[in-house]
Amino acid sequence: MGFTLAYFSLIIMLPLLALAIRSAGLGPMGFWAAATDPRVLGALRVSFVTALIAAAINVVFGTLIAWVLVRYRFPGRRIFDAIIDLPFALPTAVAGIALTAIYAPNGVVGSLFAPLGWRIAYTPAGIVIAMVFIGLPFVVRTIQPILEEVSHEVEEASATLGASRFQTITRVLLPSLTPAILTGFALAFARGVGEYGSIIFIAGNIPFVSEIAPLLIYIRLQEFNYVGATVIATVMLLISFALLFAINLIQAWSRRRYGYGH
Amino acid sequence: MATKLTARRRRKASPTSESPLVQGLLIALSLLFMGVILLLPLYAVFHEALSKGIGSYFAALLEPDAQSAIRLTLLVAAIAVPLNLIFGLAASWAIAKFEFKGKAFLITLIDLPFSVSPVISGLVYVLLFGAGSVLGPFLKSYGIEVLFALPGIVLATIFVTFPFVARELIPLMQDQGSGDEEAALSLGANGWQTFFRVTLPNIKWGLLYGVLLCNARAMGEFGAVAVVSGKIRGQTTTIPLQVEMLYNEYNATAAFALASLLALLALVTLVLKSALEWRFSAEIAAGNH
Fold first, then answer.
1. CB distance A87–B38 less than 8 Å?
2. Residue A22 within a domain
3. How many structural domains comprise chain A?
4. Quick one: pLDDT at residue B32?
5. Are B270 and A68 within 8 A, CB to CB?
6. In this structure, which of A47, A167, B178, B179 has its CB flanked by the most CB atoms within 10 Å?
7. Chain-chain contact of B120 with A136 (C-beta, under 8 angstroms)
């Protein structure tokens, strides 16, 4: 017990405290000035907008994949189920250079779009692709267990009452999956905002266009501008905590409403 | 024959499932998406690594800087993983078997490193030990370098891999309760005997599962380590950092060759993880990570 708290305080709490103290040392005016620097705002906007788009794409395909994996039987299902976790296991730098090789103008997929004048790598579209890759398992793995718990009786009841299959899915099944979908969305979004390794290779890193907030923290550190780095980090942490809080609220609400959740 | 036909027709008309055509379309769409988003990058790593032949592949792996990166990565994992294993055991033991104030808060805090950007995980150690901090110059006066050296890399790795073992074991140990331990104690076993003969065998597969994921992340961590390592070639570059340096020097083949080692590690991790899930699903608390 004592060991747990001591180790935890040393490894996690002490460093975070250092961050908070450095931030607080700036004073509100200094903090505001550093946080509203145009390049900082640009980087935060790029990070949050691309993460939002990627999380939205992941919600659509993640829900579809969870549905297919839980409800349908087809050869290779277990292998595809295992492959979902690949983004958890594959180091981000490896994913980054691999995605860049695929979506660069001379890559397998990039060369398909190059003649149309569309560039994916080295633009914000590349950032979205990388965030879709790392965020997908969060959505699938959040929805899967809930979908397995949904009882068939509800669907049968809905069908016997004359609902079409489409009505049953949109009016009966989707509402009970909504908390899981929202949680998956928030997790994928939070991961996308903080992601660094898989993005920096494919992004192009042009300030105001494709420079993400974590990269700007890294750049500030290389310049020994610890204050600038700390301010960006604090803003990102505050937003992440707000998100975590929202996830907890969703789960508490879902437990009350549906009697399960996690 | 006749019964088979009616059975098939009945299944086709089932009001609680989709028609085979819709099913086929949805399956095809899912597999296509997974193929492009997940499998294609994995294939690209090995394709690019071997693009100049097997000879230059092994030459890239045997190069001295690559060798030192491999050694450093193994060393960092060998320190960080056991420490987090011990912590994970202690934390889940404390949380599952005892009641105390602030327990729910502690569980939430353990997950914290998952929701913090890896770059920020590195940054906090720079603030703690870097120039202008209190601790850094103090340790330096005793000749201990933390930043841009092994201790910093290990600390950053411990930070990001901190939750893996604990979050795997907490639900598992909570499920099992402390009945077995109470029985062992009442039969005269002491604390350590109870732990090694009763608790540990009960949780061994869940523990292995957590260690597996912890190790994969420890060897592959990039953002946090990039911030604290200083990237001194041959000294403080782990495999992922060496991959980045080679890639930025337009030495893509060598970068992908080293990257393929990490991709292999990821594949082995996935295979072992799935094997554990299939065989011991009841003994591993299925959660999301």
1. yes
2. no
3. 1
4. 96
5. no
6. A47
7. no
